Amino acid sequence: MDFTSGLNDRQKEAVLSIDGPLLIIAGAGSGKTRVITHRIAHMLTQGIPQSSILALTFTNKAAREMSERVRELTKKKLSNLTVSTFHAFGVQILRKTIHLLPGYRDNFSIYDQADKNALIKECARELGMAPDTLDLWEIGNIFSSVKTFRHKWDGDTKIYEKLFHEYQEHLQLYNAVDFDDLIVRPIHILQENPEVLESYRERFRYVMVDEFQDTSMAQYRLMKILSETNRNICVVGDDDQSIYSWRGANYENIINFERDFPELTEIKLEQNYRSTGNILAAANGLIAHNTNRKEKELWTGTGYGNAIEIYYPENEQREAEFITTMIRMLKSRGEIEYHDVGVLIRTNSLSATLEDAFLNENIPYRISGGTSFFQRKEIKDLISYLRIMSNPDDDMNLLRIINTPRRGIGKRTLQRIQETAQKKNCSIYSAISALRYASDSGLGEKAQTDLSDFVSLIEYYREMVFTGKGIAKTVQSLVDAVQYWPYLIGEHQKNESTARWKYANICRFIEMIAQWEETQKEEGRKASVYDYLNRITLITRDDDQDDDDGKVNIMTIHAAKGLEFSLVFLAGVEAHLVPHARAVEEDPANLEEERRLFYVAITRAREKLYITSCRSRRNMRDVLVCEPSPFLTEIPEGLIEDHIGEDELSTEDAVEALSALRAKFASGS
DNA sequence: GGGTAAGCAGTTTTT
DNA sequence: CTGCTTACCC
């Protein structure tokens, strides 16, 4: 089978270069995914076993899409092909090797941002550091930088060093790791255990990394250590689309890569197959304002297409109205399907107004970002129960549910137990287990019974979930046993529909677990709680993979990376949002990254791009007067149709504008 | 000891 | 507006 037909020469070259280091600089819309998937397919035809290939991506979605597309191409079952995110790959390594780290067992918990903050707070309290005077976010970031080799303790940060060690010790005590650990711990394990490293190198003889511009220093180390001897490493990226530096992404990795693998082949993909000439010219013109970039110019063989249109609605409600009206109109004229449309925003908070408008207008939409399903309180509660069943030493999760729903264990009691735990240097759960029958516990009789009941509850369900009753069944039974439904009603007395909605979420959650268990069984894998928990911690959003058809996509620009839509609305393109005031304030050098972000946004559009910039916008309490984004002036003249003179944009105006547009379409321009 | 009401701060982007 | 902490009351 030939997997190079239909590709251009550069793409072909990329697909056929299997051995040795390869750097592919792939501009927006240059068929990057196509190249990667075809390359993998080609490798398989060359007799390279699936199990030798490791493809690392940035998001779960990208991973899923990639393996899906390779499967379609090859029409083979690919159960041994490893396509995963860096973090998920880290989990995979840890599941096998974490016992090599002192104090850790393989039922470890993974802490997300929220857990992490809670733990930092907890540690600060223990050190007597007045937690409310601390900026947990900032500290969290410092801890991250230190962990991932980006930062050493210095004059400014030294005051947190002690807190950091406390934090690390607690993680170990709770048998827990944070997100950074998922990358960093595997590196340490591989470095310190040559035989383990050797086995991984033997296994993964071909490594590919997608979205290379967004890899962090730590991630780079991980991929490097794996491929240093085989040297079959292929990285694909675009420095112009590097938009995650705040999370440690280091576009200099491209330079590091050239240094560490000097014999590399470099291939540039500059032909754009996605956007019209106009859109591309706008994007090129904009990004040319950045100084620090690899020179490249995207080009397209297709025509210029429609002008980019900019509108200036009075406020965010009018903006939402404009967008929904446009969509409605184009849809009713059969020009678009809902799923052809992307509405892109800088911040999640901008989605609220849009969502309202879409609901009002009855336009189906899908929103990604924001609090994902798994972050909802009722779901997190249940996950915490599962966590405690699988790893009782996990104090953070224990504290979360020890009195949820209320079972009469109050803060006083908790404080006592925590003190005991601290004294004995053990987890809260062990402290309770030891205390509950002790006569000298210093606790009241009632407290003791309540605690005892709690431990029995956990033990009962722990037993249940591990003896093959199934996770879904266990959770269902647990929900009944702790009377979660009455609890929900009690919590939302004024608002029974919220209670019902939350309960529906729980049912959906249980269903999702059941489904997962089913698939695991079908594929002949054991459906262990550990695996389930590890998996869902890394899922942030887009859990509903199947029903994205027939819906408009509302998402942040970050979330839109790697996607494309025929029609794109770019909302809230105002001076304080694009570039985001906070980002620039933090460091003026961030301006270039903000520009890249805007570049990514523009290049998502295939045929038509609407930009809206509100003249005022409600921000929490007050109304802000807004200016258009300065980036708009960086788009070359002649590509834009500016509707700046048009006063107050009413729905009728939008309709009118649309008829004009329609006329233009008809005249074939 | 435990629950409740008032008071207050708040999210830029995500694995 | 909301969700969380704090202070207060049962």
UniProtKB/TrEMBL annotation:
KW DNA-binding (keyword) present: yes
Keywords, in A-Z order: ATP-binding, DNA-binding, Helicase, Hydrolase, Isomerase, Nucleotide-binding
Domain UvrD-like helicase ATP-binding, first and last residues per copy: 5-276
Binding site for ATP: 26-33
One Pfam family hit: UvrD-helicase
Organism of origin: Marispirochaeta aestuarii
Catalytic activity: Couples ATP hydrolysis with the unwinding of duplex DNA by translocating in the 3'-5' direction; ATP + H2O = ADP + phosphate + H(+)
EC class (word): isomerase
Protein name as catalogued: DNA 3'-5' helicase
Family indicated by similarity: Belongs to the helicase family. UvrD subfamily.
One GO CC term, this protein: DNA helicase complex
Organism lineage: Bacteria, Pseudomonadati, Spirochaetota, Spirochaetia, Spirochaetales
GO MF terms held by the record: 3'-5' DNA helicase activity; ATP binding; ATP hydrolysis activity; DNA binding
Swiss-Prot/TrEMBL GO biological process terms: recombinational repair
The EC number(s) this enzyme carries: 5.6.2.4
Keyword Plastid: no
Residue ranges constituting the UvrD-like helicase C-terminal domain according to the UniProt record: 277-562
